[in-house]
Amino acid sequence: MKITDRYEIGRRRFLKSVALGGVGLATSGTTALSAPVGTAKKPVVLVKDSTSAYAICISEAASPSEARGAQELQRFIQEMTRARLPIVTDVGKLPHRLILVGNSRALEKLKLKIPFRELGPEGFVLKTAGNHLVIAGGKQRGTMYGVYTFLEKLGCRWFTRDLSRIPQKATITVEPLDETQRPAFEYRETDFREAFDKDWAARNKMNGSSLPLDESVGGKVEYYPYVHSFYLLLPPDRYFADHPEYFALVDGQRRRERAQLCLTNPDVLRLSIQTVFEWIQQHPEASIYSVSQNDSQGWCECDRCQRVEQEEGGAHSGPILRFVNAVAAEVERKYPDKLIDTLAYWYSEEPPLKVRPRPNVRIRLCPIGVCEAHPYERCQDNAYFMNNLRAWSRITTQLYIWHYVTNFAHYLMPFPDFDELAADLPMYRQKGVVGLFLEGDYAEEGGGENAELRSYLMARLLWDTNADASQAVDEFLAAYYGKAAPSMRSYFDLLHRQVRPAPEGKGHHMWIYTNPGAPYLSEEFLAQSQGLFRQAEVAAEDEAALRRVRKARLSIDYVALARAKTFTVRDGWYAPADLSGVKERFKTFMNDVQSFHLTELHEGSKLNEDEAGFASSMKSYRVASLENASLRVDVAPELSGRIIRIMDKRSGRDVLHHPDSGEYSYPDVGGLGLFVYPDFFAHRLSNGTWELASTPGARELVLTAAYANGLKLRHSIELKGDTAALRSESTLENSSTSSLDAVLQLRFEVDPGSMEEVVLAFRRQDGKAVEKKLLQPEQQPGGSETYTGLALPDGEWQLVSPRAGLALVNRFSKEHVARSFVGWTARATNSVTMGLWSEKRTLKPGDVLRLEADYEINNPRP
Fold it and tell me: What pLDDT is stored for residue 688 in this prediction?
């Protein structure tokens, strides 16, 4: 169905409702419309002492959104003043005084030369002309948006789906008006569940795909499918068995899981075009169709795909964009009004060297690795992204952004990103961005930290990047919290001072997966926050305001609870300091959460999963310890046999990185551990049952683990004399009756202290020396690398942290190790992971796989 047809249907429905008395329609007046006039030079009094001589005039052919605009104008003027203005059409005689809503024959008689073509579907003009007020714009949504903007000028606000501010006044006087507005961005969407309301979204001029916007409000910018669509184009269940060559070659194998498509295969292109044509036929309401990478890595490493990457300067985005362009070219021939969307995301964020997006292609650039505490242009950790943004802006004028506005690992955690938002939404527009999706807490019942306030502010900035963000925050807090607003504003300011640069605060960084132990959430901050929330609760004048304050307080309670879960070694046990108290606090907190009908605290994880995970993991674990003159090593056998502490007696420090208590699977994370995988790419086996094989000696212990598929693991840990070194020897035996693929991994997670000068050093197996400084200017403050073949360390590599006075040496048997990897991060916490992989083997019944390694703690090299 064409959109003009949908408008006609909506118009007929509107006129039918008029005939039934729905909106108080008048079709004739006492006199004809006045002669053409210029812009008024005196105020227009629409309502005086709750009476009005004005009517609202729309075209007989008004679009559904224009009809809605007229009705909303009538409704809110009546709510403000008690004066009900009749709605008339441009048929027959008209009153002397009109509010002209949308284009009409009546408006044309004024000869105002409104540039409707330039206004597009969403722009509008507000103009006083003689005795008349003109609100006219694009038929799709522009006129309706003009109505809402005019009402905002009168003081109306729609803060949430349940809370608005409609000022009470007996008189409405409009000073001379002559302004034109167009949206800052053609596509505007926020992903908080609190924004998923048709009326709220329309009144705040949002038009995104996930919002419930129907034809009565002019529809929306609609996607199908929304994102991560490669396996929707070619479902593995349908194609993989007969055509594995359609799917990515990763690490020597065609993969159907956690991977992508082979984008240089001509059949993949042919079938993808066919599927997109089917999508267009099945979902004609969409204007944008997603041809985008899956939400994983696993790009294709076949010769053809790698050749394209090399031609495109090594950018993984090269094969993607060439493929997307080829699909878009065919779509344009048959459906010239349809667009194709793809992602520049994760591994594909850097733009290609040669290929350029076609005019009907939208690139959505995703800054997933940035610090969200600071404006991007003023934060060194975000320099890499600004380089990518500028590079993409140079090669396309149709750039969209997928921006992140919540902590996906902890929806309730305080997330002070309002300084960043107020700076970066205008920055995007300056850099040529034309569309924005702001991903937040989209759980069924929402509940993300500051979701309502953030949604309101973002809506205002998405329409007008010059909007006063601080004023928007103030007016929202005043309406939302009433007399408690001053305390809540103090909390808001206190929170943001934690991340602002000196002299206002410490200038801590923050990312979308930051954990509750983050430095910006200091104990002093938590104590001050609790005091401000107590003040707000006392000040709240009604139950609604009190409930809002208590919901906001969940953020601080969440952080305090997470920190109380922190495990420590004490008297031979590994447990929280107050285990029984933590259990009671968790129960109380979950009752509070459920009272607000929240369904998720983390992306993709339901409350019952959190409760089950807490119940199974929150207990005391027996610790087995080894000790010599240089080291004390503590092992928690039940936690996957992990070494949880290595105390260097010379320095008095634990060399292991201690995971945050908010991390997924805590406390079964971090330390020095041994793990079993089917291959180098698949998920590790997680159903092993670990135990201490015998009473440990002073310097050696043996652990065993049994897996459901029949694999049995023996892992010995030994201190080497009185030196600061330990040895790990592991064997994996297939005790089943069938052959099994297996590979072993040793993973050593280190606390390097400061990351500023940390260096990884080794000699490759081809003799070349490597000395890699992990943190590099204008690069992300984190990353990873894998070494294989001749690039593999020649039996030894070391991590040197001069500032911490630490050098860690990892030696291994070259015949046992097939590859090594390093991962590092300086995001909120500093850690480096050094990992070793055994060879991958297919173990026949009775076969054994081995992996041996030594770890030594030394002074830094000169």
Answer: 86
Residue 478 in contact with residue 485, Cβ under 8 Å? yes
What is the spatial distance between Cα 366 and Cα 345, in angstroms, rounded to a whole number?
5
Long-range contacts of 580-585 (CB under 8 A, 24+ apart): 582/618, 583/618, 585/561
> Which CATH code, of 2.70.98.10, 2.60.40.790, 3.40.50.10380, 2.160.10.10, is assigned to 623-858?
2.70.98.10
Give the pLDDT score at 146: 98
**383: Cβ–Cβ under 8 A, 6 or more apart, which residues?**
777, 778
Domain boundaries, the chain: 3-182, 222-355, 623-858
- Sheet order of strands, 621-622 included: 567-570, 573-576, 621-622
pTM of the model: 0.93
The answer as to CATH 3.30.379.10 being correct for domain 3-182 is yes
Q: What percent of the chain has pLDDT over 70?
A: 94
Residue 843: predicted pLDDT: 98
CA atoms within 13 A on the CB side of 253: 11
Cα 519 to the center of its chain, rounded Å: 21
Could you give the 3-state DSSP secondary structure of residue 572? Answer: coil
* Long-range contacts formed by 713-720: CB under 8 A, 24+ apart: 713/674, 713/676, 713/688, 715/641, 715/674, 717/626, 717/633, 717/635, 717/643, 718/626, 719/626, 719/627, 719/628, 719/631, 719/633, 720/854
pLDDT at position 649: 94
Cβ 425 vs Cβ 418: under 8 Å: no
Give residue 504's pLDDT: 62
Residue recorded with tokens 């010239």: 336
Please give the Cα distance from 758 to 790 (Å, whole number).
24
- What pLDDT does 859 receive? 64
Give the residue from 808, 835, 641 showing the smallest Cα distance to 746: 835
pLDDT confidence of residue 774: 96
The CA angle 188-140-201, to the nearest 5 degrees, is 40
Rg value, the chain, Cα: 32
pLDDT of amino acid 8: 41
Side chain identity, residue 416: P
Q: What is the pLDDT of residue 772?
A: 96
Best CA proximity match to 437, nearest among 571, 345, 543:
345
Q: Which residues of the chain have pLDDT under 50?
A: 1-40, 861-862
